[in-house]
What does this fold into?
Amino acid sequence: MIVEQDVLVRHPLAEYLRECGYRVVEATQHDEARGCLEGGQHSIDVALIDVGGPTGSGFALSAWIRSNYPAVKTMLGATVGKVLALAGDLCNEGPIAAKRLDYRPVLDHIRQLLASRKRQ
It folds into this structure.
């Protein structure tokens, strides 16, 4: 599950993971993520959570998941969108060349979390 309000961040990462063979649930808000877990309609192994967001801290959501769904591994991250917004004043013209984001480190970490879950 990816919990991220910004569709321009969430969707490309979700598509990348789907292309790697994973089933991905997308949630825009923390309440929506809780609903996905509580509803039981999805089998969620890993939750990738934005540390901020307008509905509360990603740390609080991670703690809630760990308390209520200890089998679900959590990953916290900050989004590129937030970093770009903060850098906007420094770079009025934008970047010289657009770069494609590399999601391999995220994929590697998910694989490690799933492997540790299987060992347990």
Residues 2-119 form a domain with the Rossmann fold fold (CATH 3.40.50.2300). Residues 104-119 form the longest helix (16 residues).
